[in-house]
Design goal:
Elements lengths: L2 E2 L2 E2 L3 H13 L1 E7 L3 H12 L4 E4 L28 H18 L4 E10 L5 H17 L7 E4 H7 L10 E10 L1 H14 L3 E3 L2 E9 L2 E9 L5 E11 L5 H8 L7 E12 L8 E5 L4 E7 L2 E5 L3 E2 L11 H12 L13 E10 L13 E7 L2 E6 L5 H12 L23 H6 L1 H8 L3 H11 L3 H6 L10 E2 L2 E5 H10 L5 H8 L2 H4 L8 H12 L3 H21 L5 H9 L25
Amino acid sequence: MDKQPGVQFLGPRQRERAWEQLGSEQFDVVVVGGGVVGVGAALDAATRGLKVALVEARDFASGTSSRSSKMFHGGLRYLEQLEFGLVAEALHERELSMSTLAPHLVKPLKFLFPLTHRLWERPYMAAGFLLYDRMGGSKSVPAQKHLTRAGALRMAPGLKRNSLIGGIRYFDTVVDDARHTMTVARTAAHYGAVVRTSTQVVGFLREADRVSGVRVRDSETGATTEVQGHVVINATGVWTDEIQALSRQRGRFRVRASKGVHIVVPRDRIVSDSAIILRTEKSVLFVIPWGNHWIIGTTDTDWNLDLAHPAATEADIDYILGHVNSVLVTPLTPDDIDGVYAGLRPLLAGESDETSKLSREHAVARVAPGLVAIAGGKYTTYRVMGKDAVDLASEDIPARVAPSITEKVPLAGADGYFALVNQTVHLGRMYGLHPYRIKHLLDRYGSLIDEVLELAAESPELREPITDAPDYLQVEAVYAAAAEGALHLEDILARRTRISIEYSHRGVNCAEQVAKLVAPVLGWDEAMIDREVETYRARVEAEIMSQAQPDDASADALRAAAPEARAEILEPVPGAVPSGGSARS
């Protein structure tokens, strides 16, 4: 069960083969980092006909790329910062993904922008939304529509009448960021990239004055090997400075980590037919519909502690509740919260000490012969960032490098998606599933739905829901391990599915069931099942305890003390901490 026609299965046998390839083949490009920028660069290079390797110390999207606001958006608020180029670029990418590259993953989303000031605010915001629409914001979605107070309250009855004087309806998009990142990685593998997670860079190889590859260590076993490449791309986000220090080369820019926290509450706690965007004293707060929930965030504070496991504090949660409750008829309480997550934005260190004012533009630099670094940017522009990194890296590749074509390369599951949506009822009959369930699967896997359900052909019970997480079928957990590169319970419960934030038990109640489902695929015995379950439970317990702490330091100490699923990962990698940098990597 390694490969189906047209789609690369990232399963256990592929993982073994990838290790052999990494240690024995010469690559044109070695990409370090399995976040959205890294996998985007790998896909860009592979579709140019280059021989590509991608390594990730943990899991796809295990850092920033699974902890965003879940939007593939143009960045409306960047218009006020006069970053017109960034907004236009992001809107182009949003349109491309929604219509061509990933229509199964990137969906249009209706927003309400409440107006709170008379006279000046409506024309001011109208001008901004008009610019947003003209830059490309309304190609696949309707343009702005102005609403009276009564009209706005009909759209969002859960808002206090005195919290607005009117509103503007506009559209952006929503995306499951972790699933999207993993899908980009699988697409890169389909086009020939050797992709391997739990593979940590612990050193750089050199020939004379140039970087000629990396030394990697298996985060599961501790085994090491050397990967030869004409050029290495450092796409590690908030770890950019640490990997830069490991290379012993002086960096051209520095990256600062800004912590963003989101809370997840049941859908019935806020009465609204649309997402809501609220102004705060520093930035904006999003209230995003997410299945049976709302995602509310985000914060924006400097972070100098553990990069792998940023911790939300009681103060972060109170900040979000305070702001959203100021406009809600029925206030939210801590007891309403089903999930909390914290992520780190990799911002280019620059002019201002306030992270909310740092630029979201990206930077790419040839740090040394054979070494390129890319950082900054925003999730929506990952494809452009990958293209720019490979363009610069091509200077170190002996052969002629073709131009980027990823504008024309749909992600795995995109081809045929729209036709399958029209066949939802037929597919439901064929597989014995309710049309609602088919739609859920199509919006996660697109045209790979047959591949997923085929795994249940001889075990029909796998088409039953996970007992304590009924939004997901049991076969989805099996497919995550067999085809999507998941190696641990955390990978499945936090990223291949979003059970860890969508249920108040945060995945603990179904951890044992899921572990037993994937054990035959991953070769787990009873002892390994027990270890995975206990490790996951300890991680959840540490997160919940950290969220009751008053400050970052105490929250970080609790979260960092939880055991690692990847037993052999090094934190930090010896020699990888720059002066003044994080104590951990």
